TrEMBL record:
It comes from the Eukaryota. PANTHER family: DUF4218 DOMAIN-CONTAINING PROTEIN-RELATED, TDCA1-ORF2 PROTEIN. This is DUF4216 domain-containing protein. Residues 228-304 form the DUF4216 domain. Residues 3-75 form the DUF4218 domain. Residues 360-402 are annotated as: Disordered. It holds the Pfam family DUF4216. InterPro entries: DUF4216, DUF4218.
């Protein structure tokens, strides 16, 4: 009697299976192409040809044409209305959880959220510049929302504002919708409360800020505390999703960067002093934090690890243009014939006959022969001078030997 252990035979069979079938992910894709089980190889070939052909054709169309190549993944789902008025801040990708609850905005939260929305609205940038020139940059976080409301609704002002700008300047509704999950930019974000005691942590965020005095960009790292949806009155419906985050201190006391090993550390016990907790969801990227388990002196420090979006490759400075927009420039060939008339210096047109052209060609050939003869005589003279110089040099050498 013998004992059969399947685990001893698995390594042998797995190697043979990998050699015959290739990587397992390609075999999963190939299963979808099997339409006729009696001709499996032909189904593979036809399915692969159809997929490659459709992918090749998709490069000839813009992003407005829906195809498999530009289909959004599950972390980028959202509704973008092409007929929406041109305020892009209220028409962004993103999908939140269906379970939501209503809550009221406090005065401090309302002022911080409204100011952040106004500063990032493209249609109000001219008003922002006017406020900075009139007042100062420091008062923009406390007085800009009130100033904009009075400026837009001023009856004696000669500036005509759009109705959408007036509705945005009036402010959002006092009730907001809070949620725990939101998918945007290829990331799945969750609040700190939901991510607590889980193996995966999706509450870490970071954003690039202004440039400091040394010319380096300041990066802010934080943790999501709440995800809210702010709505504005009027038609069409205007809504925007914000992250209420708790930011760490971006100064050298709260954030350390090791450029040699590319390690970023944040001190989670030091918080950002300014009350600027809200950020637009489309502007953030995801990070997660890990601690030092074996160092007591690093107990208050976390290491920042930046995540990559799912199903997306980030390439900078790439111009993505549809192939059908390329225009090939074809230069038409035109036969150009030499004119038989020459222009006189005094703009008198004279006809040139064939006999005159032949005489000119004979004169040119005679001049070339004379030049070649002169060059030969010049070469002979050079050779003679070189022989005399050699004779003199030989005489000098013999005298030195004597």
């Amino acid at each position: 009697m013998w004992f059969f252990d399947v685990m001893e035979h698995i390594p042998i069979h797995l190697v043979q299976e990998a050699r015959l079938g290739g990587p397992v992910q390609t075999r999963w894709i190939s299963k979808q192409t099997i339409k006729q089980r009696g001709r499996i190889e032909g189904s593979f070939v036809q399915g692969h040809i159809g997929r490659e052909t459709s992918d090749f054709y998709s490069y000839y169309f813009g992003h407005d044409v829906s195809c498999r190549r530009n289909r959004p993944n599950r972390n980028d789902e959202g509704n973008i209305d092409p007929l929406f008025p041109p305020i892009s801040i209220f028409n962004q990708n993103g999908q939140g959880s269906k379970k939501r609850r209503k809550r009221g905005f406090t005065d401090m939260e309302m002022q911080s959220a409204v100011t952040h929305i106004l500063l990032n609205c493209p249609k109000i940038q001219s008003s922002v510049n006017l406020f900075i020139n009139t007042w100062c940059n420091e008062a923009i976080y406390t007085e800009f929302s009130k100033w904009l409301r009075n400026y837009v609704y001023d009856e004696y002002s000669s500036v005509q504002h759009l109705q959408l700008v007036k509705e945005v300047a009036l402010g959002p509704e006092s009730q907001v919708l809070a949620m725990n999950k939101y998918c945007v930019n290829g990331f799945k974000f969750q609040t700190e409360e939901v991510s607590r005691n889980k193996k995966t942590n999706n509450s870490g965020v970071y954003i690039q800020g202004d440039v400091d005095g040394t010319g380096q960009t300041i990066e802010y790292y934080g943790v999501i505390q709440e995800i809210i949806e702010v709505r504005y009155s009027g038609w069409p419906n205007k809504k925007i999703v914000l992250f209420r985050c708790e930011w760490f201190d971006p100064s050298h006391r709260g954030t350390k960067v090791d450029h040699q090993h590319n390690i970023i550390e944040v001190k989670h016990t030091r918080k950002y002093i300014s009350y600027d907790h809200f950020i637009i969801t489309q502007h953030v990227k995801q990070v997660y934090y890990t601690s030092y388990p074996l160092r007591r002196d690093k107990a208050d420090w976390w290491v920042v690890i930046k995540s990559k979006p799912m199903g997306r490759i980030e390439i900078d400075n790439v111009l993505d243009v549809a192939y059908q927009n390329d225009v090939a420039i074809v230069q038409q060939q035109v036969d150009v014939e030499l004119e038989t008339t020459l222009q006189h210096p005094q703009h008198i047109l004279e006809e040139v006959y064939d006999d005159e052209i032949l005489n000119v060609e004979e004169e040119i050939s005679e001049n070339e022969e004379n030049e070649s003869f002169d060059n030969e005589e010049w070469d002979d003279n050079e050779n003679e001078t070189t022989e005399e110089e050699e004779w003199e040099n030989d005489g000098i050498e013999t005298s030195e030997e004597e």
